[in-house]
Structures are given as C-alpha cells and as structure tokens.
Amino acid sequence: MGVPGTDPHGIGAGHPTSEGQTMTTQRTRSLGRPTLDAVAARAGVGRGTVSRVVNGSPQVSPEARAAVQRAIAELGYVPNRAARALVTQRTDSVALVVSESEERVFGEPFFAGIVRGISSALLETPMQLWLAMAQSPAERERVEHHLTNQHVDGVLLLSLHDADPLPTLLEQRGLPTVLGGRPARMLGDPAGAYFVDVDNAGGARQAVEHLVGQGRKRVATIAGPQDMGVGVARLTGYQDAVRESGGHVNDAMIAYGDFSETSGAAAMRRLLDSCPDLDAVFVASDLMACGALRALRDAGRRVPEDVAVVGFEDAPIARQTEPPLTTVFQPMEEMGRQMARLLVARIRREEREVPYVLLDTHLVHRHSG
Predict the structure, then answer these.
(1) Compositional bias (Polar residues) spans (predicted)?
(2) CB within 8 A of 5, min separation 6: which ones?
(3) Residue 114 region, left (φ>0) first, then alpha (ψ -120 to 50), else beta?
(4) Which regions of the chain are under pLDDT 50?
(5) How far is residue 55's CA from residue 136's CA, in Å, rounded to a whole number?
(6) How far apart are CA 82 and CA 267, in angstroms?
(7) Model confidence over 18-37: pLDDT tens digits?
(8) In this predicted model, what pLDDT tens digit does every residue of 134-144 receive, in sequence order?
(9) How many whole angstroms separate alpha carbon 328 and alpha carbon 331?
(10) Quick one: CATH architecture of 93-198+333-360?
(11) Strand partners, 311
C-alpha cells in the first residue's frame, strides 16, 4: 500500500492548490527526476513490469528486463529507496559481519576474495552491501543493535567461532542469515543450516596424500583454531590421510595457530622442538605456511629437500614465497558469490532442495613440496 501523495519509485506527486501550481508541478516533473511512468513509456512496457524489475523480481521476461534496464540507463532513473521501502517492506541492504579485527580483514587476501565475490553477485540485484567488523565487545554491541529488519534484509556471517551467539540471535529476529563456512558443531549434521563452505577435509586429505606419495615418512601439521569448523575439518582431513596411509596420528606432530603468519612461525618452531626428524608439514593456511617457511629457514632446514611444506588457500602470496608454495586451492570469490546468491534466495523466500553449498578444492603444485 502506497503513501498518499508519494510515488514509491520516484518523486512526490504533490498536492496542487491551483491550476498554475499544477502546471508548475508537471513542468518540474518533466524537466527533473525521471519517473517510473517515464521509464515504462520509454521501454514500451507497463508500470508494473518496471516496478518488478526495479525490485529484483524474477517474474519478468529477459526481453522486458533488458528493455527496462536500457530505459533506466537512458533516462538516468534512480529509485527512491526510502519511499520504496515503505511499499516493499525491504531495505535493499544486506550486511557482511566479520568476527575479526580490521587489520586482518583488510590485510589478509581471504577476506578480500570473499568481499569481491559477494559484491559481484549483488550487482545482479538492487541490493547494497555494508561491512562491519565485530571483534571487541563494543563493536559487537553496535553491530547487534543495527542488525534488525528496519536496517537490513539479511546478514552474511564470516569467520565465526563456535561460542558466537550471533547466528541464533539473528534467527530469533527473523533475519535471513547465511554463514561463510560451517561452525564446528555443524560438521556432522548440516541439516537445516544455510551456509557456503569448501571441502576443507577433502583438501587437507589431498595435501597429505601428496606428501606421502612423495615418500615423506614423518608428516606433521599446523592446524587452525579448533573452535572453528574450518580448523576442525582440515585437522580431520590430515588425521584421516595419515591413518589411511598406514601411519599413526601422533599429538606431538600437531601444532596449532590462528591462521596468521606469526602463529605459523611459532607453531613450526614447536614442531621442530618436539619432532626434529619431521620431513613434511601440512599447514592449514597459506599465511601460516609463510611463517613456517621462515621458521624452517631460521632453523637451517632446506625446503623441500629437508622438509616439504604444503599450505591451504592458494592466496597470491603462495606464488611469492621462496620457494613458491605448493597449496590447496579454495575458490574464495566463488564462495562469496554463492553466499550472496543464497542469501538473496532466502530473502525472496525461494525454495531450495539443499540449503547449503559445498565447493571443491584441488592441489596446486609448486616447489615447496
């Protein structure tokens, strides 16, 4: 239901009090901001068709959509978002909330790839993206206050830890939500969960199988945080591959980091202390692998002659290390695109047979292992 005297897609209709005032209003409209009716006339379609295109409805033929989009571009039509929100009950905004520091979000390539993918998918819709970092209690309080259906139509959550109450809070508020990666508690039973993830366990298994196939006998690992699904899954893949190769999982061969380069170097030093005869290491992220390479170099170990190293992600830095890093590729931009598309489908209440998306990984061979 519209607001009296308001064009939900253009400018106010006005309330003329005299003939002269009416003419002035019409003349202003004809020379000023283009209206929905003007777009319809230019495109040769009905006003309702233009409205459906502007609102991102799928119930428009490709031909009509193309004609409307041409007319919008030619006329320079810009929808009135505030007025349209009163009609559609939507804000045309979605939030990406990352539970990490600003330094990591803007400094690590994983996050940049995800954001690029999300942005490219949202270009296909009228929706705008806003980004929030929520690590400190004050940041989280501000973000939680803003995440309501008065401000956003849906939320994308990234880098979640298992204790995070935000997914439950958002579901209680009725806000469509999609997770980037599974929390550890969902690894066994993803039923009913809306998320996009990569085959972390399978990718880790490929990495270890490759190292064993190269003749490595003492394969260690630097695992990620165990309160995150990605950390648990990559460690599980390592353990499965060790057992399948006839080996025994030894806790002394496992060290932990937080996906940062510094933590990778520290974990590698711990492994060298506990298992000085190791001849390979699978590292659960490329940044941690960079730290591991530095620690190995400082310890006088040659890569790959003495110790082979395989990372996970195929970040740009993997091509710049010395030697270049063998790693497991994960499709970061595609992950972001799929997250955005899944959220848009939820917002539009589109039915899906499976509420989640799992993306494949593969090994990229370079010179570190």
Answers:
(1) 18-29
(2) 12, 13, 14, 15
(3) alpha
(4) 1-31, 82, 86-88
(5) 36
(6) 52
(7) 333 333 333 333 445 788 88
(8) 877 788 888 88
(9) 10
(10) 3-Layer(aba) Sandwich (3.40)
(11) 327
